[in-house]
Design a protein that fits this description.
The complex is a heterotetramer. By secondary structure, chain A is an alpha/beta fold. In chain A, 32% of the residues lie in helices and 24% in strands. In chain A, strands 6-7-8-3-9-10 form a six-stranded mixed sheet, with helices on both faces. A four-stranded antiparallel sheet of chain A has the order 2-1-4-5, with helices on one face. In chain A, a hairpin with a 4-residue loop joins β1 (4-16) and β2 (21-33). A two-stranded antiparallel ribbon of chain C has the order 1-2. Chain C is globular. Chain C has 14 helices and two strands. The chains are: A alpha/beta, B mainly alpha, C mainly alpha, D alpha/beta. Chains B and C meet through α6, α7, α12, α13 and α14 of B and α1, α6, α7, α8 and α10 of C.
Chain lengths: 318, 307, 327, 271
């Protein structure tokens, strides 16, 4: 187990509304290895961002972690996230236009983060800050510039530099390219891959885009209605998805394909269940064409270390 | 939709659920209702008619609450003022005037504010600039000053014999005109947000004109903040009425509003007749506080971000 | 940056001219200067002569220009009562109002911002709820009633503080101040609290709302995700970002303190311009009313200019005139 | 035969400072050209897609085609008639409007939250005077709901009771309610989840066949466009840099910008 940097065991995140308690994340178990990019993919309401916030301890009332454990480098951190936040685990967010304090020079924002987490002199902090900017591809002479003078893509680079400054071993990237144009998205994803490779930093990439996942991540975890649907090596999952939901996701993602406009896209019927109305048994069963009685009655476990689906059970039995 | 269905819908709504589960909201709502009912039925509840000079017995002047008067033996629940007027009755009748002025002033401010705000926000351009610059300037002058100015101007224009008769109308106009700005600003702000939304573009696509879009599509969507402001402005208007009456430019002494009663009471506070000030003041506080609490709850409810 | 300042100055000028127009219209049409100056027994010829002398027969826009020109030279005509020059009346009473307004403005600003930030940071705590509910009682009581109650408690019952007037005043020639004597300072306490309380509540609520709004921003989320301490998050990231809206509204509120002083001055018999105005309204003394209006407009414009300059100091985005093109 | 022709379409925005500031600083007038001399034509019953990143001017073109925005220069012809013609009569303009409708990007902002779905769908029917009696209007609403895969009961519900995908269906039903010939689809699925996106795209295709609709499809997503369009125009900073049928565009992009755009699209095949 030593190659596991982060382990989440049976994580449960709930929010109490006035009428009932909703499960945002329900019994999620997964692990992140050292130096890998793990994709967390799912549609809106799948609980992927919540999971990210839970790891870094940014869950706020009325949402709370009501069960499970989070272990980081052999230490349990769900009770004391402050000890690792920023220093060991860092996070970047979706909208780079809003992520930087508009009143501060970017250099000062970097230096603040560096001096907070590292016991070094101001001079060294400046050096370190410049180094970080170079690493993300920004001219260090722009240390004294204010955020509003940067474009969206450049701001996301600054945010990445901020996250990397204290040399964390895990960065959680929550939809880091969703607000950006495709051409910029490609650059930012390349930057993340490069950081993972050169620094050995593990990255959790949260996204709704299967294509981004397939191009960027080593392993992927597919979530549905706050639950784990399927987890495994990205290439294998893309080529041979086991869970019907993953299959549907892969098949319904449009591809550049000159001939495809003659055909209909594959479509998953229905829509994601509302949080206060999650179906019994497997949450996906009303939208699944293979669903049988057991799917309606019992919640599937993760089978073959891969997918939470009773169909796998049937396949194994054969 | 039929009225019944609307009511059922309302009873099932989150809004109603939250209301019944917020003790402060319920209590303040009940307090407002009780006060309003008392004011409306003052004629049945009040033991005397305080506006009728012939019913006043000067001997009853300064009778403390719940103590028989030394000369006449009359007992007053809340005491009597210098004229021998029953304070309890005076407060009930005074409430009527205060509430009437408050409601009418809010309606005036609201209509004016919605009209100007909607136009400024939707039409934009120089009209928007003109309206909002004017609002900016007016905002700098506290509403009391504006109201006094309007009052002063009205006194200058109206012939002296009409001043007295028109005093309530002048109060309403003065307070109403001084409180339209918050309505206009809010409505303009929401209108500018709403008009960029695509349902407005969809309405333009089917050839609706400006006014149809403003009234049918945008107006219903900018009303909920107006409700909050109306509530808070109502409290402000009652306080403004009291203040103006206190300053001597409001309701006349013969038909006193709450503010006039407090003004009378202030003269006697330092000589020991505390009840003449205290009871009207407490009534005013209870009413304004209840309205403010309800408005506060309403704001949190309709704008959950500010919780 | 220069452009912004110039533009602001230009707007300020427009505002002043507009206020001047309103006060001119009141001056010209509401009162009847001739009747007021001559009384009702004057002959037609006398009236005509005075109308001519006052320029009342000139075209209206020329009269307006004349009015503005005289106002620039601090000539607001004579008060109908006592026939003293309005400018002298106001000048003799302005120090009292300005000292009162300044004291209560500082009081309102300091306590308003502090409690606003406190109640936003410690959401739901006992003290927060106490402050918030007390403030609601504060806005539900008319200012004059608060003044009356303060007098009753601190002056009548306890006898600690004077109940009216400015106390001893030191005359500095062009200014008379109550700041320099013990009785002057003591006299300031109750009126300043009375005047500042309402503004304080408004500033507190605004600060709190802005603070809560800023705390929802992504850059605060990022600052927390980067492991900065709550102290750093609040003081170096959140609070600077609420300063612009807070200064804007606070500035406007403080501007209105001068005008709001009317009520407080009445309650405490404070010899300022507010009391002058109140009496002007009673006696329909139009020149005083219109001059007072101009004065309040002028204070507003000055405060607005200061507020705008503070923006530039706080927000780098506004210092860059290129910004607008980018967004 | 070209159904819609856009001829040298240009749209400029005036970003100049007010004149007084220009006088003081001797700055020149500034113009932002959002759409720069764009020409294209769409055949009846086909889908023409405009692709571009943010700021490419694609939404501005959409607005000009439906007549929400007037071009600074150039013209749009629809079925032989000029759109944005100031001289045409009110009745003619209304007739034109009926034939060109639009589906918007945001499933949340495009439906008036205070209106029941039935009323939302009836508004165009009434505005264009399509059915006079209430009964006929109700019947038409049910028919529309059925066409987009919703049920007749949904007419009494309000937009907030629907999911994003369902709202987009309502939006499509509203566009269909005036029986148009052309529908402008402005990023109709970019706010939707993938699984729902597929449903909406398929629905658009089905409806196109059924009613021989002509689509102008605006999108930033080349992958989505490739599944929808007969012809694709690539926009960059207001200019139409390349126009081709999909097979040609994806196989042999000629313009370097197009090439860069295609390369940047993440793709399962490139793992």
């Amino acid at each position: 187990m030593s190659d596991h940097l982060l382990e989440i065991k049976n994580l449960k995140i709930t929010v109490a509304t006035r009428r009932n308690v909703l499960n945002l994340v329900d019994n999620l178990t997964l692990a992140v290895k050292k130096g890998e990019i793990l994709g967390l993919v799912g549609e809106s309401g799948a609980g992927k961002s919540m999971t990210g916030s839970a790891i870094i301890g940014l869950i706020e009332k009325p949402v709370k972690i009501s069960g499970g454990e989070i272990w980081f480098k052999g230490k349990r951190i769900d009770q004391h996230p402050d000890e690792v936040r920023g220093h060991e685990i860092s996070m970047i967010f979706q909208d780079p236009m809003m992520s930087l304090n508009p009143l501060w020079r970017i250099g000062d924002q970097l230096i603040e983060v560096i001096t907070t987490h590292m016991n070094i002199s101001h001079q060294d902090a400046i050096k370190k800050a410049k180094h970080c900017l170079v690493e993300v591809g920004i001219d260090p002479s722009r240390m004294n510039a204010y955020p509003h003078t940067f474009s969206g893509g450049m701001r996301q680079r600054v945010v990445i530099a901020l996250a990397l400054a204290p040399n964390p071993s895990l960065v959680i990237a929550d939809e880091p390219t969703t607000a950006l144009d495709v051409s910029i998205q490609a650059q930012i994803l390349d930057l993340l891959k490069q950081i993972c490779k050169t620094r050995g930093t593990s990255i959790i990439l949260i996204t709704h885009d299967m294509a981004v996942i397939s191009q960027t991540t080593d392993r992927v975890c597919v979530m549905y209605s706050g639950r784990l649907a399927e987890i495994g090596i990205t290439k294998e999952i893309m080529a041979h998805p086991q869970h019907p939901y993953t299959k549907g996701l892969v098949a319904s993602t449009p591809q550049i394909d000159a001939s495809s406009f003659e055909k209909m896209l594959y479509q998953i019927p229905g829509s994601m269940p509302a949080l206060d109305n999650i179906p019994s048994g497997c949450a996906f069963h009303p939208r699944c064409e293979h669903a049988h009685d057991k799917c309606r009655a019992e919640r599937p476990e993760v089978l073959s270390n891969r997918a939470a689906c009773w169909l796998l059970d049937a396949n194994e039995g054969q | 939709m039929s009225g019944n269905a609307m009511i059922r819908r309302f009873l099932k709504s989150d809004f109603f659920y939250d209301f019944t589960h917020a003790p402060i909201a319920v209590v303040s709502f009940v307090v407002i209702m009780v006060i309003v009912t008392c004011a409306i039925f003052a004629g049945f509840i009040a033991p005397t008619n305080p506006f009728d000079p012939s019913s006043l017995e000067l001997m009853n002047g300064f009778t403390p609450p719940m103590q028989p008067n030394a000369f006449t033996g009359d007992v007053f629940l809340m005491g009597a003022d210098d004229q021998g007027r029953d304070l309890f009755s005076a407060i009930l009748y005074g409430l009527r005037i205060s509430l009437f002025v408050g409601v009418m002033a809010v309606i005036l401010a609201m209509v004016l504010g919605i009209l100007l705000g909607l136009t400024a926000g939707y039409v934009g351009g120089w009209l928007d600039n003109l309206i909002m610059r004017f609002a900016d300037i007016q905002m700098t002058f506290p509403s009391i000053l504006i109201a006094m100015l309007i009052h002063g101007v009205a006194r200058g224009i109206l012939p002296p014999e009409l001043r007295y008769e028109m005093s309530i109308t002048v109060l309403i106009v003065a307070i109403g005109l001084s409180e339209w700005v918050p309505f206009a600003r809010t409505v303009r702000g929401s209108t500018m947000v709403e008009k960029e939304k695509e349902y407005v573009a969809a309405a333009q696509l089917i050839g609706l004109n400006r006014w149809q879009i403003m009234v049918r599509h945008i107006l219903p969507n900018v009303l909920s903040p107006v409700l909050v402001i109306a509530t808070i402005t109502f409290a402000l208007a009652i306080i403004a009425e009291a203040t103006l009456s206190f300053l001597g430019v409001g309701a006349p002494r013969t038909e006193p509003s709450l503010g006039t009663l407090i003004r009378i009471g202030q003269d006697f506070l330092f000589s020991g007749e505390w009840w003449i000030l205290l009871f009207p003041a407490l009534t005013l506080l209870a009413l304004a506080l209840a309205v403010n609490l309800f408005g506060d709850w309403l704001r949190d409810k309709l704008n959950p971000r500010l919780k | 940056m220069l452009i912004i300042i110039l533009r602001r100055l230009f707007q300020a000028l427009l505002v002043l001219l507009l206020v001047a127009l309103i006060s001119f219209l009141i001056f010209r049409y509401v009162g009847n200067p001739v009747e007021n100056l001559l009384g009702q027994e004057a002959t037609v010829a006398q009236r005509a002569a005075l109308e001519e002398a006052l320029g009342l027969n000139d075209p209206i826009h020329e009269q307006y220009v004349q009015f503005v020109w005289r106002a620039i030279q601090f000539d607001f005509g004579n008060s109908y009562r006592g026939a003293l020059p309005v400018a002298d009346l106001i000048a003799s009473r302005l120090p009292a109002t300005l000292e009162l307004a300044l004291t209560s403005a500082i009081f309102a600003m300091v306590f308003g911002v502090l409690t606003g930030i406190y109640t936003a940071i410690h959401r739901g705590s006992f003290l927060t709820n106490l402050i918030l509910s007390t403030s609601l009682i504060g806005v539900s009581l008319p200012t004059f009633l608060i003044g009356v109650l303060l007098i009753w408690f601190f002056s009548v019952e306890l006898g600690w503080l004077p109940s009216f007037g400015r106390g001893e005043v030191v005359d500095l020639g062009w200014w008379n101040t109550g700041f320099l004597t013990a009785s002057g300072l003591k006299s300031l306490i109750l009126p300043s609290i009375t005047l500042g309380l309402y503004q304080m509540t408004l500033i507190m609520r605004l600060t709190r709302a802005e603070m809560l709004e800023v705390m929802r921003q992504d850059y605060i989320k990022l600052a927390r995700a980067l492991g900065l301490s709550p102290r750093q998050v609040y003081f170096s990231h959140a609070i600077p970002n609420i300063m612009i809206p807070v200064i804007t509204i606070a500035g406007l509120q403080l501007g209105s303190v001068v005008a709001f002083a009317i009520i407080t001055e009445t309650v405490f018999q404070w010899p300022g311009v507010g009391l002058l105005f109140i009496n002007a309204v009673y006696f329909v003394d139009i020149p005083v009313m219109s001059a007072y209006l101009l004065l309040v407009g002028f204070v507003f414009v000055i405060i607005n200019l200061i507020v705008d300059l503070t923006y530039l100091a706080i927000d780098p985005r506004l210092r860059d005139s290129q910004l607008k093109q980018e967004q | 035969m070209s159904f819609i022709i856009a001829n040298h379409l240009t749209r400029q925005y005036d970003l100049s400072d007010p004149w007084i500031v220009r006088m003081l600083t001797s700055n020149k007038r500034k113009q932002l050209t959002a759409v720069d001399d764009v020409s294209f034509s769409i055949d009846k019953g086909t889908t023409y897609a405009l692709v571009g990143e943010s700021g490419s001017g694609k939404s501005t073109i959409a607005k000009m085609v439906v007549g929400l925005l007037a071009p600074s220069a150039g013209a749009i012809t629809f079925d032989g008639k000029m759109i944005n013609d100031e001289t045409i009569s009110k009745a003619d303009r209304q007739r034109l409007r009926r034939r060109i409708q639009m589906v918007f990007q945001s499933p949340y902002a495009s439906l008036n939250p205070r209106w029941a779905v039935g009323d939302i769908l009836k508004e165009p029917i009434r505005a264009f005077g399509l059915f006079d009696s209430r009964a006929d209007q109700d019947k038409r609403v049910n028919e529309l709901l059925d066409q987009v895969g919703l049920s007749a009961r949904d007419a009494n519900k309000y937009p907030h009771e629907f999911s994003g995908g369902q709202r987009q269906r309502i939006s499509i039903a509203r566009a269909l309610s005036s029986q148009p010939d052309v529908i402008i689809c402005d990023e109709p699925t970019s706010a939707l989840d993938v699984s729902v996106q597929a449903q909406v795209l398929n629905l658009l295709k089905t409806l196109q066949k059924e009613f021989s609709l002509t689509y102008l499809f605006i999108s930033h997503d080349l992958a989505v466009v490739s599944t929808m369009a007969n012809k694709i125009g690539v926009l960059n900073e207001g200019k139409l840099v390349e126009e081709a049928v999909p097979s040609q565009l994806f196989a042999k992009p000629e313009n370097p910008y197009t090439k860069m755009l295609i390369d940047a699209v993440p793709d399962f095949g490139k793992v």
